[in-house]
Amino acid sequence: MNLAALLEKSARRFGDRPAIALGHELFSSYQNTAERVARLAGGLLKRGLRPGDRIAIAMKNCPQYSDILFASWHAGTTAVPMNAKLHSREFAYMLDHSSARLCFVTEDLEPVIRAAAMETQSGVEIIVANSQEYDALLKNNLAPLAQLEPDATAWIFYTSGTTGRPKGAMLTHRNLLMMTVSYFGDVDAIDETESLLHAAPMSHGSGLYILPYVAKGACQIIPESGGFDPREVIEILATHKKVGCFFAPTMISRLINDPSISAANTSNLKTIVYGGGPMYVADCQKALDVLGPKLVQIYGQGEAPMTITGLSRAAHMDINHPRYLDRLASVGTARTDLEVRVVDGDDQPLPIGEIGEICVRGDVVMQGYWKNPQASAESLKGGWLHTGDMGTFDEDGFLTLKDRSKDVIISGGTNIYPREVEEVLLRHECVAEVSVIGRHNSDWGEEVVAFVVATGDEAPNEAALDRLCLDHIARFKRPKAYFFVEELPKNNYGKVLKTALREMV
Asked: Are the C-beta atoms of residues 438 and 410 closer than 8 Å to each other?
């Protein structure tokens, strides 16, 4: 089983159809894309890479992203996509931890990745997409498709670390093929006349959704900006038909609140799949009013990619149902291909209406964490993935999230774990204690704020705390506000009461 076979099959069936578009212009047909991928795979093998080796990708959205993903699988290697917004030290950790042999970068990220590579012992090679070195890879002979076992690792998906270090979820070819099939069964039926717009990072959900669209011979659209701009999205909709996309809720909010949306023709927009953060009911209703019946919600994790529950297009529009608003506030029902249950502290299933931890089991669930058997054992207890999220089922099988254990902050669809920010702030000599929480932000969903207890009478300088953060973590993780307090609220066991802190902001 090799995911790259999806591209080969579509190239045979839809050879002349568009595979990749850059903005309004055709970039490549399926036949040309499949040939380019096979030659790129040949170049990887010629450089000495072997099945199972890791290939990192540190790139903003571009046409080469999909080529590199499929070439890595074609050659039998494992892709390690990394969020382009990360800090140099975070890149360094992932390159080192994954033991990546090679890292593809876009030109804008080359300096930061070379700096990151200097901090590692891996000896990773760096190739800039569209460089002469990259073009040389495309001049190699066509490589045969690597024959792989279904449980061979295809993608190492680094999740934000609850302990300050990200964990690499090992997603196999079987996992991602099941995710692909699940898309057709529970999210959206698509065909070769449709397109997928990559306005969200291809290192995460948008990139994972390449697979179902390639499987059906549909087109990948890369915005010329390489990211999300509401007006650019609207302009693309004027050219391409039957467009689908994966958006964070904040992206939907920005789209429907952009002044240009009132005069826009959104008839070519077919589906927005959203997830990665809470979507408030009022915002969801407004989006339905502006865009029509085009929303589908998914709830998943890197450990169960894009596939745990879903709120269907029909459920979004069932306004006459007596619990319609409750359903809009939920994350939908269990996907067809896996089991979902809510359990107590002893892993026993709880009755309807009771809150417990959400656990899932099925072929989409990761194999484990790369080089972390302890975390793997803890997360996959009894054959079930323990998500760390708390929720409750209603009598119709709709799951509602009640809390995010581990206190993850979701800002703009990106997970930020407080502990990694807290650990950085505690490096300052004037910081005795610190607690980081998320505060509501109308544009980004949540923003990071920090409560700080000083070691002495004088509070640390905010600018100094900012500099400390910028030296160690990605800019988007830096607190947007600091609150200096004499003490942190705690329970009898000494645990900080973050609920009380949230009431203070």
From this structure: yes
CATH number for the region 417-503 comes to: 3.30.300.30
pTM for the full model?
Answer: 0.87
Place of tokens 């212009």: 25
Q: Which residue has the tokens 């149902």?
A: 321
pLDDT at 279: 78
Closest CA to 374 of 165, 80, 173, 178: 165
CA 137 to chain centre: 28
Question: What are the two backbone dihedrals, phi and then psi, of residue 61, each rounded to the nearest 5 degrees?
Answer: -55, 130
3-state secondary structure of 146: coil
Q: Write the CB contacts of 297 (distance below 8 Å, at least 6 apart in sequence).
A: 273, 274, 275, 279, 310, 311, 316, 331, 332
The tokens for 294 are 């085009």
Burial environment of residue 487 by CB neighbours within 10 A (0 to 12, 13 to 18, 19 or more): exposed
> Which residue ranges of the chain lie beneath pLDDT 50?
162, 492-493
Tell me the torsion sign for CA atoms 206, 209, 211, 213: negative
Contact 155, 176 (CB under 8 A): yes
Cβ atoms < 10 Å from Cβ of 352: 11
Per domain, the residue ranges of the chain are 417-503
**E strand or H helix at 90, and its extent?**
helix 88-98
Strand-pairing partners, residue 271, are 244
As a three-state string, the secondary structure of 201-239 is CCCCHHHHCHHHHHHCCCEEEECCCCCCCHHHHHHHHCC
Task: Quick: pLDDT tens for 384-395.
Answer: 999 988 889 999
